[in-house]
Amino acid sequence: MLAKNPVLLRSELFAGLDRQTTERLLALARARTFSPHEQIVAEGQKAMFVACVMNGLVRLTKKESTGRQADVCICEPGDIFAEYLLAGGEAYVHGASAADFTEVALFDLEGLRSLAEKNRDVQANVMRIMARHLVGSMDCIAGDRLHTAAQRVANYLLGRCPPLASRVTLSLPYQKRVLAGKLGLAPEALSRAFASLAPAGVVVRGKTISVESVNLLREEC
Fold first, then answer.
1. Among candidates 74, 73, 71, 53, which has minimal Cα distance to 63?
2. Which of 18, 60, 70, 123 has the lowest CB atom count within 10 Å?
């Protein structure tokens, strides 16, 4: 039941809400499960809901004029997407698809708009979510402009290394194609980035990555 889902109830959308508001918000939601690669929404589709990922991963994508598609965000459990619709708009500005077996809570858009208009706490939560996404987008743009593909991968790996470790073995939490999307890279660019980090002691075996020298890896950033 959604009312007992800890990931959903700990999400930013529910932060600090009283019991009555929480129950009203839950009444607007329904759960749906998606298979890997299954489309959740299409870019330009009439908007019907705001979503929260409860389990699995969701790829948010954007098309350019030529029709090519790029990952713009990987949503993990607890993440909200399409919340910008509460500020207006009638269509999704991105596509969304499941990157794994994924369970999503779908909140009726009109009902959520009505609740947010009347409840300042829900409004505040939505504003915090939108602000975080805006800051994240700016960080992503800065990273794209300042860092090479190898530097993006090196920074990601360093972020997963314990502070005082000199060498470490990491297990990727998801498939490499998902990591590529998370870092804003094409899958082949991710493979080349891993190869270029080999002299720094990075060894890739499937989803297991060995960092032979954290200091050498840090020099690549």
1. 71
2. 18
